[in-house]
Amino acid sequence: MLIDRTMPLGAALTVTHASDRGPRAYNADAFAVGRRTFVVADGVGDSAAAAEAAWAAARAAALLVDPVAAVLAARDALQVHAGDAVIVVGVARLEGGFDVAWAGDARAYASDGSDLVQLTEDHTVAEYFRARGVGFEPRMEHVVTNTVRHATSENIGRAFTRAPRLALVSDGVYGPLGHEGIGAILSGQASAERLVRAALYARGTDNATALVVS
Questions:
Q1: Which candidate, 137, 211, 200, places its Cα nearest to that of 172?
Q2: Which of 69, 133, 147, 148 has its CA 20 to 30 A from that of 158?
Q3: Percentage with pLDDT > 70 across the chain
Q4: Is 86 exposed, middle or buried (0-12, 13-18, 19+ CB in 10 A)?
Q5: d(CA 151, CA 76)
Q6: Strand 165-169 vs strand 208-213: parallel, antiparallel, or unpaired?
Q7: 73-86 pLDDT, tens per residue?
Q8: Neighbours of 98 (CB within 10 A)
Q9: pLDDT digits (tens, 9 = 90+) for 146-178
Q10: What pLDDT, in 10s, does the model give residues 180-190?
Q11: Is 11 exposed, middle or buried (0-12, 13-18, 19+ CB in 10 A)?
Q12: How far is CA 136 from CA 44, 89, 139, in A?
């Protein structure tokens, strides 16, 4: 079932979020919104345990306003759960812009209304080989090298943007849409619902979840 909400955050920020199970048996994606913190988590696998892990990680992360600490809080929350997840966290700076942290292959994109920048770098086997100029099989795009359960202060990814719009998405969104598809949506009347519906229309084969802050 598609979920979409719009809420004002203070005087400047508005957030929308949407999620859909797609063709999977479970929706193992999750999202959470804190005071200035925004989270998308993607459970590893198609199971109830994966879904529970994603929601536990997202809710724990949303309580903190430091993105790295948020990922570590998500890791600690999974100690009482069987599943695992990947995660991306964005925190709105009081002076504008966003700090981002992640573990795995959930992504953050920044947009100024015209240009789109991918802030995160996937923690996958494919990205590891790509960065070293080594060939790889397509299936390696989906093999993660880091997750919430294995996150440490050293291996968590970090980024910052001054852009006014931030999109956090699971691979069920960026996989079907690609960079150009996401950019086209974020350049207009951007909303999480539009991203998720477009991913489903493009015949995505995974859960699709997005959270857009602007």
A1: 200
A2: 133
A3: 95
A4: buried
A5: 10
A6: antiparallel
A7: 999 999 999 999 99
A8: 26
A9: 999 999 999 999 999 999 999 999 999 999 999
A10: 999 999 998 78
A11: exposed
A12: 22, 28, 8
Q: How far apart are the first and last CA of the chain?
A: 24
Tell me which H or E stretch contains 179: helix 171-186
Token duo for residue 45: 């696998």
24 DSSP 8-state letter? S
Neighbour-count burial for 49-76, b at 16+ CB within 10 Å, e otherwise: bbbbbbbbbbbbbbbbbebbbbbbbbbe
The H or E element containing residue 101 is: strand 98-103
Neighbours of 188 (CB within 10 A): 9
Taking alpha carbons only, the member of 46, 126, 62, 53 closest to residue 86 is 53
How far apart CA 212 and CA 14 sit, in angstroms, is 8
The residues, any chain, with a CB within 8 Å of residue 163's CB and separated by 6 or more, are 97, 98, 110, 111, 112, 117
φ and ψ of 88, to 5 deg: -135, 135
Whether 145 contacts 123, CB under 8 Å: yes
- Does this model's pTM top 0.90? yes
